[in-house]
Design goal:
6-stranded parallel sheet, alpha/beta, about 450 residues
Length: about 450
């Protein structure tokens, strides 16, 4: 890595000197000077983009990447200071914060654990400066989202704004300052640009923060080492006893058609997000008719789609809640396989265990038959039989209650506790008891 950096530094210095000397010979008119500055700017932009890709393409670890970023900053500063280039083209880093939860410790109600989850990234304008048009990147994304035999003929119909989060550069191994009330803490992003942290606070501090907000919500601020900041939202699991609904998203509340590769791509990147008919009303009634009811959206979909998914929740008036999604990387062979992978199974199961281990609440689990929700919910219910109040599975292929898959998934679980439904009207509003006990 060092040899690449040294070569780049020497190369840039030589080119820089060459163009500065050129300025001395063409200062006769204002037009000449202006043209020279424009030429230098254009050349420098192209040069530093190439430098950026070379330097980061050869980074092998955090220290080398840090060295590469130092070189990029050095070159950028020269360009900005010497040639009056608008540095807004370079300062395109963003921080995205995912709504998470806070809960009281089971052995000490005076202490809260506040969960922080975010992602720092940089908009990847360099790809376009190298002449790679959006259509070629869309084609590449399509090839990663569906198999090579099922590529959708896009014809410009894909929503480019939905694609944008997949074409950013993760800001790995960078400092993030968290400020929540009077508590501050510095953490670091991982290799995906994401950061996770548990911050402990006293109950008194939490209650003071809570007074500033509504509905058991507190907020916090984060600042990157480039002074970019963002505001995050935390849902308090309070009181410690009550009902928490853990809900899947795709084909449970939002039509995705995850069993069809091409339709999955179309519903994700082309068509407007559409709710499953009747589900917004069901969730609204759950929220108003059940005391101390909180919502948590647990999904295998890429967290790059969080912003759009939050908009979908808001537009269709689903209750707000915490979000627990997965980060999509180009190592994934396709979105279809990403959703149906063992990693998604483990992702959901680990979050369910986390909720049950760290809270005293009873849980209602709702999902669909398109993914592995029945098997996941059956597994966790056998581990915590007294804590799972009810399981609801939306049958997206008109499967019946006695389908062998469901009988296997819910083996050794009381039939009163789980319900397979086709219409949300079949689902009870009262969550105080097992669903088929109420229906009976």
């Amino acid at each position: 890595m060092n040899k690449y950096i040294h070569r780049i530094e020497r190369c840039y210095d030589n080119v820089y000197v060459y163009f500065v000397r050129s300025l001395c010979y063409i200062e006769d008119t204002r037009i000449s000077i202006t043209l020279t500055k424009l030429s230098m700017t254009a050349f420098s932009i192209g040069f530093i983009v190439i430098v950026f890709y070379i330097s980061f393409g050869h980074c092998q670890n955090a220290s080398e990447e840090s060295r590469g970023r130092y070189l990029w900053q050095k070159i950028k500063n020269k360009l900005v200071n010497k040639f009056d280039v608008d540095d807004r083209h370079f300062n395109s880093e963003e921080i995205l914060l995912f709504p998470d939860i806070a809960f009281q410790l089971s052995n000490d109600s005076n202490i809260w654990n506040v969960m922080i989850h975010g992602w720092k990234y940089q908009n990847n304008i360099q790809k376009y400066r190298l002449g790679l048009h959006a259509s070629s990147w869309i084609e590449r994304l399509a090839r990663n989202l569906v198999s090579s035999n099922d590529i959708l003929h896009l014809n410009g119909s894909i929503n480019h704004e939905r694609l944008r989060p997949f074409f950013v550069t993760d800001r790995a191994f960078e400092d993030i300052l968290i400020e929540i009330g009077n508590t501050t803490q510095t953490i670091h992003t991982d290799h995906n640009g994401e950061f996770y942290e548990q911050i402990q606070m006293t109950n008194n501090d939490i209650q003071q923060l809570k007074q500033k907000e509504n509905n058991n919500i507190i907020t916090y601020e984060v600042t990157g080492d480039d002074q970019r900041n963002a505001t995050g939202r935390i849902q308090l699991i309070e009181p410690s006893e009550g009902i928490s609904i853990i809900s899947d998203i795709d084909d449970t509340i939002k039509i995705s058609e995850v069993l069809d590769k091409v339709r999955l791509l179309a519903n994700t990147f082309i068509s407007p997000f559409k709710p499953v008919p009747g589900m917004p009303e069901l969730y609204q009634q759950w929220q108003t008719k059940n005391i101390n009811c909180t919502f948590h959206y647990l999904s295998g979909m890429p967290d790059q789609l969080y912003t759009l998914t939050q908009e979908f929740i808001d537009i269709n008036k689903f209750p707000n809640g915490s979000f627990h999604m997965r980060h999509f990387g180009w190592a994934a062979t396709s979105l279809f396989h990403f959703l149906h992978s063992q990693s998604t199974f483990e992702h959901k199961l680990s979050y369910l265990r986390f909720f049950l281990l760290n809270t005293k609440r009873n849980y209602v689990l709702i999902g669909d038959s398109g993914e592995k929700d029945p098997e996941i919910y059956g597994t966790i219910t056998r581990e915590y039989p007294e804590r799972i109040r009810a399981i609801f599975i939306r049958a997206i292929q008109n499967e019946s209650f006695d389908n062998q898959r469901f009988l296997d998934a819910f083996k050794d679980i009381s039939e009163e506790k789980w319900l397979v439904f086709h219409d949300p009207k079949q689902v009870p509003i009262d969550l105080s008891r097992a669903p088929r006990t109420l229906n009976g």
